[in-house]
Amino acid sequence: MNPDILSSLKKGPARCPRFGGCNAPICPLDNWQRAQHLDGEPVCGLLSELVKHGGEARLRACLPGAMVDTLAEVFPKITARWERVRSRLKRASRTGSKLESVQRLHQRKKGGSTDYSTRPASVAPVGASVPVTTTLNGGSNAMGGTDGRR
Fold it and tell me: 117's torsion region: left (phi>0), alpha (psi -120 to 50) or beta?
């Protein structure tokens, strides 16, 4: 990414596209080391998307690469520290993508094509999300006996 673009990005949680409506106490884009997470509190939606099959590629298609790199870098540290967050993210990894749902909704409203399998050429391969999912289950490539897909 261009250094001029990187320097113009907002710092801390304000750079998150969900900043205005997010109530997650653990923000991977902020100083999360000082935060606390209590049972029942929300988990970062970007981390929830990151752990889904193909999630990293979807995030790279709509967020700056440096932001996705930060999410992927702090993900194992956050899940190692908070069991509740790790458990919620493991559960989220087995559900469908909210980003894809929103994209399909926008396509329907526009009356566009219903072929959702195409991706822009700049999207990373789906396999890029494999290291993230393996962190949730102690190093195994399988999640609960499956490959993480429904």
Answer: alpha
Between CA 130 and CA 52 the distance in angstroms is: 9
Measured N-to-C along each axis, helices 65-81 and 55-62 cross at an angle, to the nearest 10 degrees, of 140
pLDDT tens digits along 93-112:
999 998 888 888 888 888 76
Q: Is the pTM of this model over 0.85?
A: no
> What count of other Cβ atoms lies within 10 Å of the Cβ of residue 107?
14
Residue 142's CB is within 10 A of a number of other CB atoms, namely 11
Report the length, in residues, of the chain: 150
Kindly report, residue by residue over 33-79, the tens digit of the pLDDT.
888 998 899 999 999 999 999 999 999 999 999 999 999 999 999 99
Average pLDDT score over residue span 107-128: 54
